Amino acid sequence: MSSEPSVTPAPEPAVAPAAVETVVIPPDDGRHMALAEQALAVSRLIAGGLQGVVLYLLYLSVDTTSWPSTSPYWLAPLLMVFVFVPLLFLQAVGTMRPRTLMLWTAAATALLAALAWYDIWRQWQPSGFGVTGDSAMTFALVAFAIIGLFIAQSLIAAGDAERKYIASYAAYFDAAWKIGVQLALAVAFVGVFWGVLWLGAVLFNLINLKFLETLIEKSWFAIPATTLATAAAIHVTDVRARLVAGIRTVVLTLLSWLLPLMTLIAVGFTLSLPFTGLAPLWATREAASLLLTAAATLVILINAAFQDGAPEHNRPLALRYGEAIAAAILVPIVLIAAHALWLRVAQYGWTVERIATAATIVIALCYAFGYAAAAGLSLPGGTWMHLVARVNVIAAFVVLAILLAMFTPLGDPARLAVNSQVARLKAGKVTATAFDFDYLKSEGGRYGRTALTALAAGNFGSSTDIIRKMAKAAIAGNPVVPGKATKADIARNVSVYPNSRALPRTMIEQDWQKTGGGPACLSQPVSPCDGFFADLDGDGNEEVILVTGVDPYWYGTVLKVGPDNLWKPIASINGRCAGMLAALKKGQAAVAMPAMVLRDWVILGVRLHPQATTADTAPCPG
Q1: How many CB atoms lie within 10 A of CB 125?
Q2: Which residues have CB under 8 Å from 21's CB, separation 6+?
Q3: What is the pLDDT of residues 89-128, one digit of tens each?
Q4: C-alpha of 414 from chain center
Q5: I need a labelling partner for 437 at 20 to 30 A (CA). Which of 25, 104, 196, 411 fits?
Q6: Which pLDDT band, with edges at 50, 70 and 90, does 20 fall under?
Q7: CA-to-CA dists, residue 34 to 30, 91, 95, 158, 239, angstroms
Q8: At a CB cut-off of 8 Å and minimum separation 6, what does 339 contact?
Q9: Contact, 341 vs 286, CB < 8 A?
C-alpha cells in the first residue's frame, strides 16, 4: 500500500508592513450642538429673569406709590415694553439672525411704547396710580397687541429664514404654527407650574409648615418665577421641533374634519333666509357679530384643511369640496353682516363698537372674496385652492394696517364715533333730550371731553340752552335726567294719524313717570313719535300704537286702557319692510283675524304679529 507523498507548504512571502494612516477624527457634532443648546437656554433664562426683575420693580412702584406709577405716561409704555418685547426675544433668539432680531426688537420697543403713550393720552383724564388709582391701559390695546405682535413675528421670522422680504407661504405657515404652539404650551406649563407649587404649599400646611405658602405669595418671588417658567417652556418647545410638528398635525387634522359639518350648517342657514326673511335675524340685535363669528369659524376650518397647501397634504374629496363650498358661502354671510351694520349706523350713527365691527367686516371681506376667487379658479383645474395662500398673506398685512390705524389718531374709534354722534346732534337727526351726552364721556375719552366742551359753549338755535346744560352736566359727571313731560309736551310729541284724530284724554293726563312702561314720547319733554289706532285684540275697542324710528325698521308699542282707566303696554310690534311707515300715515292698514291673542296688523298686504316673542316671517312685497 503506497502512501501519498507529504507536501511541505511553501512559506508565505514576507509582506511589508503597511504605512500607518493618520485618521483625523471630526469634532463631536452632538457635543457642539449640546453646548449651543445650553448657551441658548442660559440666554433665555437670563432674559426671563431680567424681565421678572423689571416687572417686579414696576409692581413695587405701584405698591409704594412711587415713580413711575405716579406718571402714567411712563408706566404704561414700560409695562407694554417689558411684558411683550422679552417674549419676542425669547421666541426668536437662536432662530432669527442677530441683525434682524436686533432691528425687530428695537422697532417693537418703539412701537409698543408709542401705542401705550397714546392710549393713555386719549383717555378722559389720564392720572397716575398715586393720584386716582387709574392709569391703566385699555384692555383692547393689550388684547390686540398680542394679535398684532403674533402676526408680525410670524411674518418677520419667515422672511428672515428665507432671506426674503416676502417669504413662501410654507415658511409663513411653519413660523405661525411654531409660535402659536409655543405660546399655548408655555401658558399651559406656567399654569401647571403654579398648580404644583400650590399643591406643595397645601401639603406642607398639613404638617403646619407654611414657609412655601408664604414664599409663593411674595411678589418678589412670584413675578420672576413666572417669567423664568415662561422662558424655560419656550426654550423646551423651541429645541423639540418634532413636538410642535406633532401637535400641529393633530390639531389641524381634527379641525379639518369639522369643515364639512360647519359648511353644511352655513349653507343650510343661508338657503333658509329667503323663506324666513331677515326679520328674525335683525330681531336678535346681534346679527353682525353672530354672522362674523360664523365667518371666522369657516376661515379657520378652511385653513385647517388647506394647511400649507403642499401637494403632500392632498385632501380627501370631502375636504376639497368642503373648502370650495365654504369659500363660496362666506360671501353672502359677510355681506349680510355688512348690511346689518349699515342699518344700525344709518339709524343711530357710528359708535366705538360699530367702528370695530366695520373693521372686522373689512378683514372678513378680504377673506370672503379672496377665498371665493380661489374656489372659482380651482374648478377648471390646476392646484386646488392655491390662491388661499396669497389671500392669507395679504390679509395678514391688512390686519396689521387696520390695527395700527385703530390704535393711533388716524382711525381711533373714539374720535370717529364722537364726530359721528355730534354731527347727528347738530344736524337734528337726534333731539337734545334723546342724545346720550354721557356716551361722549364714557366712550369718547379725550375726544369726547373736547366735544362736550365745545357743545357747552356753542350756539344751536332753540336747542342751545338744553344742549349747553346737558353738556356741562356730563362734563361734571352729573348727567341731566329729562324732566317730567307735561300734557302739552305729550300732545306735541305724538303726531297722530289720521290728523283728524287725537290721543285719548286719559292717556295725556296719565302720570307716565309713576306708571312707567310707555315709550319715551309719553314721559320726556322732547321725544317725538307717531300714533296710530287699531283694534288688535278684537274686543271692539281700539288700542293706541305709538311708533318710533324710520322705515324700514321702526318699533311700535301697543297700549290698551284697563278697567282702572290706566293705559298699559300689552305688546310690541316692529316694522321690517320699506314703505310700511309711509303706508300707515296714509291710513293704508287693516287688521286680520289673529293667529295668537292679538289680531294681525296688515300693512301693504303683510301681516305683522303684535307679540314680542313672535317672529314675522312673511316676505316683503317686491
Answers
A1: 10
A2: none
A3: 999 998 999 999 999 999 999 999 999 999 999 988 766 5
A4: 16
A5: 411
A6: very low
A7: 6, 19, 16, 25, 11
A8: none
A9: no
